[in-house]
Amino acid sequence: MNYRKEIDGLRAVAVLPVILFHAGFGWFSGGFVGVDVFFVISGYLITSIILAEREAGSFSLIGFYERRARRILPALFVVMLACMPFAWLWMLSDQLRDFSQSLVAMSVFASNFLFSMESGYNDTAAELKPLLHTWSLAVEEQYYLLFPLFLMVFGKLEKRILFLILSLVLLFSLSVAQVGGNFSFSAPHLDEVWDWWNIPSWGFFLIPTRMWELLIGSLISFFHFGNKSNASNGSQWASLVGLLLIICSVFLFDKQTPFPSVYTLMPTLGTAMIILFGTPSTLVGRVLAHRGLVGIGLISYSAYLWHYPLFAFARIRSLNTPDTWVFAALAVAAIALAYPTWRYVERPFRDRTRISRRTIVASAALLSAAMIGAGLAGHINKGFAGRFDNVHRIDIEKKRQETWSVFLENSDLKDQLAIFPRHNIRRILIIGDSQSKDLFNALYLNKELFENQFEFRRLKFDVSCYERHLQVPDRHPCNAKTILDTRLFADADWIVVSTRWDLKAVNSFPPFAKLLTDRGKKVAVTTRPVEFVGGGSPAIIQKMSIIQSTKSFDQETLGKIFYRYRSADVEPVSAALRDVAKRHGFVFLDKSLYSCGESEKFCDALDENLRPLYFDYGHYTIEGARFFGKKIHSMRWLEPLLS
Length: 643
Fold this sequence. Notes:
Layout: H1 5-22, H2 33-56, H3 61-90, H4 93-107, H5 111-118, H6 135-154, H7 159-182, H8 191-194, H9 200-205, H10 211-222, H11 233-252, H12 265-277, H13 283-288, H14 291-298, H15 300-317, H16 324-350, H17 357-380, H18 396-411, E1 426-432, H19 434-444, H20 447-450, E2 454-460, H21 465-468, H22 481-484, H23 487-491, E3 494-497, H24 503-507, H25 510-518, E4 522-526, H26 537-548, H27 555-564, H28 570-584, E5 587-589, H29 592-595, E6 596-597, E7 602-603, H30 622-634
Parallel strand pairs: 1-2, 1-3, 3-4, 4-5
Antiparallel strand pairs: 6-7
Helix pairs in contact: 1-2, 1-14, 1-15, 2-10, 2-12, 3-6, 3-15, 3-16, 3-17, 4-5, 4-17, 5-6, 7-10, 10-12, 11-12, 15-16, 18-19, 19-30
């Protein structure tokens, strides 16, 4: 097929927004759509090459997969190898274990499966995964494992029949993306069955919801008519609309946009329109064929490979979120590294006259085996925690087990905990998820401080039930009636709702709030607790140890660091919850009052014996529960419940 400079220019339009989005530049809030542009381009080019070779009688599966190996593997292995020493030097044990798993997964082009099980694409933890961006390469290679086989089996069918089959597959894949990412099932007894269907990361990472984007490119390659020598007015306008669709997606979409979904049609159809109509004789074609854009397009694959590890390791190494100028410099560095990678790695390995098939196969097999071996070693050895002899280490799993054993012992409704034993003091029933366990544990382990004021009990209540409990009140497994019909509820003077709120839970809370008020209960709601990003509380402590090469810290220094690691999305959720509480006449209890001081810019992280107060992003250790229970008492935080 003839070389089209404007498609390389389109690659530049795809890669630059992706880099700027991952760098955190707010204007490029939808820059992630660049990956979708790449999918369409890839589907178009690869299918066009296959069709051209089939027509010439020169197509072979071995030759196809050899070409994919030459295109993808050399630069990928260079970047993976470059990441390994920095991962060893800077990553915490949990992070290195996860990185090791990604080495194995990417070596067999299954990293999208791995990341779909770990976290969402836009989660804070995802920003610390240097190889997260390789999920898109895995999707492409899975597609190209199947697509040539499909053409070999069905390629002799009439073109319109083949086009119809592929179109039906495209529509099915798009439907799976839309349903899987944007609808929930609330029919009786089906919620648990369909839970797997509604995991956002499943919809984002895996090929069933992404295949339709590559198929758009494949389908337009069947009916490509973009090589006309003269551009009609229709071509001018169509290519311009296509470019505008991509640009609007980059600037109008954000992390809250359901993706992939019908929204993804904007950048993908825009890309298809440019490929079909953006010829060199159109304005868009001439702009995209500019030598600057073409140059970036040529190195776009290497730039894509380099940018995410640079950003991830900058975040891993820094105690605070790096400044904007740091990410700007790293974005430039990604482009700078991309050129020699393209010039001295990509180009030579694509040249069959310089590097033979045997060399490609042998080197790919050797490096893949090495990556898998290194990855398995990191996984089996749990991230080689012993690397850091001179730092303060925390046995996170031990802390978690110790804490949850107390939770289980003191939170289950057994024996003396099944009822309120006294009636001459305020009886407080705490309901909610694991965050309510935190609050209950803090109060229960300090019960001697409250014995003349309060008696505390707890019942588990799933936040997901807030909206659905009225739909099937007698059959839903987490029906609110399991709480409302208990003796504890009947005897309680106050109901305290404590859970890990998000905006969806806050918006769906009013029906249950009305149920509580209809029963004549006094109600208090607690804010979503303070949470810490960057791997959680123990990770922050160990990270400081690694960077500063020390085993201990003073509380003031650590407390100020923790304040800067607070999760930013807690505040808008708390504001929305405060408004709901005000409308219903509930007492609003702000947990940040006793965990982080707004005026001092300080969050408690260690107790007086320098033991950690949290064992993850925000759950209390035993020491933390005792510590915060004492603060709750000294600050008279529960005083509003004495009325």
